[in-house]
Amino acid sequence: MEKVYLGEMNLVEVREYLRKGDTVIVPIGTTEQHGPHLPYLTDTLIPLEVAKRAAKKMKALVASPLPYGLSQAHYGFPGIIWLSGKTLISVLEDVALSLAKTGFRRIIFVNGHYCNDQPLFVAITDVTASPELPKGTNVYGITYWNVMSPKMAEKYLSWRVGWHANIGETSAILAIDDKFVDMRRAPVEWPKVGEDTATLNISATQTGGWHLVSKTGIWGDARKASKKLGEQFLEDISKGLVKTIANYEKTYGKAPAKTR
């Protein structure tokens, strides 16, 4: 089987790929608690899996994931690792520029964590305006659940099913590798947070905010999660990612606006 994971390839294989391809997908996530039943790398494992599936459809490679992001809201739980917003933006810019300068012309960041959204968009805005970016290079940033079909999205992450370590994320990790999940400890908790996006945004951006509203570290009911449901989610997301990139390029072309 043809390799798609850049970190597993050697110099000869990467050079051979770049003779015919130009696309790399970079997953970004976190190292933070996801309740008593899911691993700390949940937000990294899901975009990595989505990236690998999409890469096969797009003839792309997948770079090593960035497992750290803005997890300050989880301060109060043990073992949380985070970057400052400035650091995350700088790291993302450096990753994009280094990949562009060494041969890639389509660089796609796939984000798996809510709070990484805005730093990612700032980084891409800055790097695509940079004179250091090689001509003809395009850089995209997509938070993976935004490409889901409305029907799947409602079942995956929503006010109805919860926002963190819920049935959606638990099902996705079960489908990726069920040894990472302890369903015996799968909890249910509905934090008392106002049901509007503005309140959700405020809760997510306050250091320690998540720890204050959730005793178990989750938001939702993970008990009915299944590997079958997770497979449906992952396929929907990977297809949605491919479709989103294709739709963008059909509208604007592959070359970034400033080069045309």
Quick summary of this structure?
The chain is an alpha/beta fold.
Assess the beta-strand content as a share of residues.
Answer: 5-15%
Rg result: 18 Å
- The CATH class designation is Alpha Beta
The total of beta strands comes to 6
Distance between the termini: 38 Å
The helix/strand order is HEHEHEHEHHEHHEH
Folded structure, characterized:
- By secondary structure, the protein is of the alpha/beta class.
- 43% of the residues lie in helices and 9% in strands.
- It is built from nine helices and six strands.
- The protein has helices at 11-20, 42-58, 85-101, 117-128, 150-156, 167-176, 197-205, 209-213, 227-252, and strands at residues 23-28, 61-62, 106-111, 138-143, 188-189, 220-221.
- Strands 2-1-3-4 form a four-stranded parallel beta sheet, sandwiched between helices. Strands 5-6 form a two-stranded antiparallel ribbon.
- α2 (42-58) links the parallel β1 and β2 (61-62).
Helix and strand topology:
Blueprint (H helix, E strand, L loop, with lengths): L10 H10 L2 E6 L13 H17 L2 E2 L22 H17 L4 E6 L5 H12 L9 E6 L6 H7 L10 H10 L11 E2 L7 H9 L3 H5 L6 E2 L5 H26 L8
Parallel strand pairs: 1-2, 1-3, 3-4
Antiparallel strand pairs: 5-6
Helix pairs in contact: 2-6, 2-9, 3-4, 6-9
List keywords for this structure.
single chain, 260 residues, alpha/beta, Rossmann fold, 4-stranded parallel β-sheet, two-stranded antiparallel ribbon, 6 strands
